[in-house]
């Protein structure tokens, strides 16, 4: 049985006191059975959140693959581990776009996270022009091939995948359930080709991009959608509470 995961990516939002307050609220939500909840606060607040989180896990939005050294402004996977941080986002489209992170760097980050026992949430997804020209399956497949599929099975098993079509992020234009399911099923089939049926069945593949209380139930009901990586709707505990609630996961299933 693969994990069901709801993860909140807070991006570069909230003051320190707001972050602590939101963490407390999310930590005390009524979480459906078997659903794992992660928050990814801004790095500066990760330790504050970690100290408050008893029912949820805390991750980092980014980290550098080297352990230590002259890398001004960076935080390493090793440092995350030392601070008790459970997970890290790798390959988010905003990091790819604004910070020039390419598939080769992401491959190094993935290896470093795994080497330190940090759970990687590897993000993939196509921009609008690729969706429109119809080559989106090939595009996402090559992102996975260039950064992820070199891993041995024993390491790949620890990775969570997140499909986030860039045209759906922060736009209010969610992928339809058909679009999400088509991509998620394709991703699972590529994992199966590479690692076999059992590992493919056990891989959690999250959807991200304008997922909210109004559409989460239909998305999470898709056979190959195992949860969500949530931006805007993770910043309000009332919205996030719907995404982690038992009913959102059960009624349509
Ligand atoms: P939104 O939910 O705000 O579209 O953001 C999705 C996202 O980028 C999560 O990582």
Largest sheet: 8 strands, parallel
What is the CATH architecture assignment? Alpha-Beta Barrel
The helix content, as a percent range, equals 40-55%
Head-to-tail CA distance between termini = 15 Å
Overall structural domain count: 1
Name the CATH class. Answer: Alpha Beta
Shape: globular
* Mean of residue pLDDT values: 97
Q: What are the segments in which pLDDT stays under 50 over at least 5 consecutive residues?
A: none
Work out the helix count. 13
Query: How many β strands by DSSP?
Result: 8
| Percent of sequence in beta strands | 5-15%
List keywords for this structure.
single chain, 253 residues, alpha/beta, TIM Barrel, 8-stranded parallel β-sheet, 13 helices, 8 strands, globular, binds 1,3-dihydroxyacetonephosphate
Descriptive report:
Helices cover 43% and strands 15% of the residues. It has 253 residues and is an alpha/beta fold. The chain has one domain: Aldolase class I (TIM Barrel), CATH 3.20.20.70. The protein has an eight-stranded parallel beta sheet. The radius of gyration is 17 Å and the shape is globular. The protein binds 1,3-dihydroxyacetonephosphate (13P).
């Amino acid at each position: 049985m693969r994990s069901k995961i709801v993860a909140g990516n807070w991006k570069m939002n909230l003051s320190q006191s707001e972050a602590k307050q939101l963490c407390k609220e999310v930590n005390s939500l009524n979480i459906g059975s078997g659903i794992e909840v992660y928050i990814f606060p801004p790095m500066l607040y990760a330790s504050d959140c970690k100290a408050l989180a008893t029912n949820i896990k805390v991750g980092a939005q980014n980290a550098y693959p080297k352990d230590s050294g002259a890398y001004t402004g960076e935080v390493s996977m090793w440092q995350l581990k030392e601070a008790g941080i459970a997970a890290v986002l790798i390959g988010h489209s905003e990091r790819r776009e604004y910070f020039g992170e390419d598939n080769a760097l992401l491959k190094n980050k993935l290896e470093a996270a795994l080497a330190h026992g940090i759970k990687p949430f590897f993000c993939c997804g196509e921009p609008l022009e690729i969706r429109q020209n119809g080559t989106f399956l090939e595009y996402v497949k090559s992102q996975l091939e260039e950064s992820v599929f070199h891993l041995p099975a024993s390491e790949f098993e620890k990775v969570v995948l997140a499909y986030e079509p860039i045209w759906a992020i922060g736009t209010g234009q969610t992928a339809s359930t058909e679009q999400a399911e088509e991509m998620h099923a394709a991703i699972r089939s590529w994992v199966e080709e590479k690692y076999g049926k059992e590992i493919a069945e056990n891989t959690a593949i999250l959807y991200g991009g304008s997922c909210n209380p109004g559409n989460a139930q239909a998305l999470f009901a898709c056979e190959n959608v195992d949860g969500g990586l949530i931006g805007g709707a993770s910043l309000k505990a009332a919205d996030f509470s719907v995404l982690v609630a038992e009913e959102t996961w059960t009624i349509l299933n």
